[in-house]
Amino acid sequence: MAIPLLAQLVNVLAAFLLLIAFAMLSQRRVLTLIKLLAWQGAALATSTAIVAWSTGQTHLYYSALITVLLKVILIPWVLHRLIDRLFVRWDIETLINIPTTMLIGIGLVIFAFALATPISQMATTLTRSTLGIALASVLLSFLMMIVRQKAVPQVIGFLAMENGLFFAATSATYGMPLVVELGVALDVLVGTFIFGIFFFHIRERFDSLDIRHMEKLKED
Amino acid sequence: MGVLPSPLAGSLLVAAAWLVVAVAGLIPAGNAAFARRFAFPLGAAAGVALAALGLQAVWLPAQTLTLPLGLPDLPFHVRMDPLAGFFLMLLGSVSAGISVYAAGYFREEPSGRLTLISMQYHVFLASMAFVLLADDAYLFMVAWETMALSSYFLVITDHQRPAIRSAGFLYLLIAHLGAIAILLCFGVLHGGRGDYTFDALRAAQLQPAWASVAFLLAFFGFGAKAGMIPLHAWLPEAHPAAPSPVSALMSGIMIKTAIYGMVRVTFDLIGGTSGNIRWEWGMAVLVVGAGTTLFGVLYALVQHDLKRLLAYHSVENIGIILLGLGMAMVFIGFGHPAAGALGLIAALYHTLNHAVFKGLLFLGAGSILHSTGMRNLNDMGGLIRGMPKTAFYFLIGALAISALPPLNGFVSEWLTFQAALQATVLQHGVVRSLLPLFAATLALAGALTAMCFVKVYGIAFLGRAREPAHRSPLPHAGDAGPMERYGMAWLAAGCFVLGLFPTSFLLMLNRVGVSLTGHGLSEDALLGSGWLWLVPTAMGQASYSPVIFFVVIVAVTLLAFLLVRRFYHGRLRFSDPWDCGYPEQTSRMQDTADAFGQPIRHVFGPIYRTDRRLPGPEDTEPRYSLKVEDRHWYWLYLPVARAAEIVSSKIALLQQGRISIYLLYSFITLIALLVFVR
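C-alpha cells for the assembled complex are given below, as produced in the milestone run.
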C-alpha cells in the first residue's frame, strides 16, 4: 500500500513542476521568475528524494542533495545578485503575447504526452507516468527561451529546461549515473557564471540587456 | 652502410635539418644577416645532401620505417623507394640552386620579413620532402596541407597589396579543392578497412568501377596542384605574386610533387604490378594533357608580364608530362609494358628537366625584376648590356625550354615522341591513329614555345631600351649579385648535364619504372644505350647522341668564326639600314612583346578573349591598349562563383540575427525529430 502512495506523491510533484513551468511562461517579473526557478528546483529535489527512498537507490540521495544546494540555493542567489547589480527587475515584454504563448504551451503538453505514452508503457519504473510531464516541461522551457526578449529570462529558461531534463532522467531510468549528474551540475553552474559575465559585457556594449540589440551583429 | 646513414634515415635527417633551420632563423629575431648568410646556404647544403641520398636510393631496394610521431595508435610511416628517391633528388638538387640564389636575392629585404620568409621557405622544403617520403595517407595529407599552407604564406609575402591577397586566396582555394579530391581518393582506395598505410592501399582489391573513381579523383586532385586545365587558373596569378625564388620553387618543384602523387597513386597504389591500369584512363590523361599543352603555350605567347608568361609555360610543360604519363597508361593498359615504361620514363625525365630549366628561368626573371623593378616585357629592351651574365644564364634556360639539342628539354620531348611512335604495337585502331595526333600537338607546342622564347629573349635582352635613359631604369640596371649567379649557374649546369648524359638518367628512370610496374625498357634499348648513344627502343629504330651533337655544333661555330675572322676583309662600314621611309627612327619603334604575339593572336583568335582599344584618327594623345584574358574565367570560374553566391545568399536568409529565431530553429528541429524519428 505504501508504494502507490509514494507514486502518487511523485505524480503530484510532477504536476507541480508542470504548473511552475506554465507559471514561468506567464510571469513578467524577473524576480518572481527566479523564485519560481527555486521552487521548481525544490520540487525536483523532493521528488528525487522520494524516488530514492522508495527504490533504495542511494546515489539518488546525493543528487537530491546537489539539486537542493545548486538549484534551490546557489543559482537563485547568484541570479539575485546579478539582477541587483544589473538593475533588471523591471517587467519583461515578450515576443508573442502571453495568452497565445499559453495556448502554444498547452499544445506542446498534449504533444509531449502523445509522444511519451508509448515510451512509458515500455518502462517498468515506478515513475513512468511522469515522463510526459518531464518532456512537457522541457518543451515549455524551450518555448520560454524563444519568446523572451531579455537575456536573463532566457538563462532562466535554460536552467528550467535542465530541470525538466533531470526530471525526465529520474522518471525514466531512476537517474543518470552519479558521475554524469555531477558533471551536468558542474556544467550548469559554470554556465550560469559565464552567462553572468556575458551579461555584464553585453550591457557594457549596448547599454541594455535587450537581445534585440544583438541583431546588429549580423553580417549583411 | 657503415658510417653513412641509409638513404631513408638520411633524408629524414635532411628534412629535420630544414625544419631546424626554419626555427633557428627565428631565434635571432630581426636578424636578417643570419637568414641570408646561414639559413639559405645551410638549406642549400642540405639540398645537395638530399640529392645525393635520393640518387643512391634509386638503386637500392625499398626501405620502410615507422616514426614515433603522429597520433597515438596512428604513427607516421615513411618509405624510400626508387620513385621517392628520384623525386627527392629533384627536390634536393633544384632547391639547392634556388636556396643559393635566395641568399643573394633577399639582400634588400627588411629583416623582420626575411626571417619569416626563411622560416616559411624551409618549412615548405621540409613538407615537400615529407610528401615524397610518406608511406601512409595520413602523413601524406598532413605534409601535403603543410606544403599548401607554407607556400600560400610565401605567395602573400607582399600581402599589403590586395591583388596579391586575392591571388593567394585563389591558390589556396584550388589547392583545397584538390586536397579534398585526394582525400576522397584515399578513402575510395582504402575501402573501409581502417588501415591507411600505402601497403594496405596497394593490397586492396578494387572493383573496376571503384578503381576508375579512385583514379579520376586522384587525377583531379593532383591535377589541381599541377595546374592542368581547367584548374590552372591559380598558376598565372600566384607565380607573379610570389617572390621570384618562391615562384621558382613552386613552379620547379611543388607542382612536380603533384606529378609524383599522380604516379604514386596510379602506377603504384592502384596499378602496381597487377596491371589494373586501364587504357581509357590513359586516353583521358592524353586528352587533358594535349589540351593543357596547347592552351598553356598559346596563352604564354600573348602574355607581356614575364612571370605570367613563365607560369603559362609551366602549364604547358605539365601538359607535356601528362602526355608522357597518358601514353604510359595506354600502353600498359593494352599490355605493352616496355612501351609503357618508355612513356613513364619520358614523363619523369621531363619532370626533372622542367624543374631545372623553369627554376632557372624564374630565377632569371627574378634578377631582372630585382635590378630593374620591371616585369612587363613591353617596357624592356637591351638588358644584355647591363646584365650580360643573367642574359647568358637566361639564354641557356630559354634554349632548354625550347627543346633545342643538346640541352635537356630536347631529350625528354624526344623520348615522348619515341613513346608516341610505339603506337604501331597497339591493336585498337582508333587509339593507334590518335596517338600520333597527340605527338603532333606536342610538336606544335614545341615550335610555339621556341617562338615564345625568341620573343622573350629578343625583346627583353636584345635591342635597345625603349625609353631614354632618364626615364627608364633599364640602362642603369646592374647585373645579378654573385650568390644569384651561383644559383643560376648551378641550374644551368644541370641543363647541360641532363642534356649531354641522358643515358645514365634513362637507366636510373628505367629502374624507377621497373620498381613500379615490374617492367622496364626492352633488352635492345638497355644494351644499345651507352654513354654516347641514347637508345630508347632499339638501335635500328632510333638513337640520339647529344655529345656528338654538341661537339659538332661547337666545331661548326668555331669554324665559322675562324673563317670569318680569316677571310672577312675587316673593314667596318657604318651606315643606316633601310629606314622604311621614316625620317627618324627611335628605339620606341622596336617590336614589342604584344606585337610579336599578334600573328598568333589572330591565327588562334577564338581561343582568346581580347579587349583591344585602338586610338581614333583624331586623337591628340593616341593610346593603344590590349587585354587578353583567359576564357576559362568566363566559361568555368565566374559561373561557379556566381552560382555559389546565389546559393549562399539564399542560405544567408537563415541568418536573421535574432536569438529567438535561432532558438526556434532548434526547437522546430527537435519537434520534427521527435515526431518523425521516434
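The interface with chain B takes residues 95, 111, 115, 118, 139, 142-143, 145-149, 154, 211-212, 214-219 of chain A (CB under 8 Å). Residues 2-217 of chain A form one domain. Further analysis is deferred to the final report.
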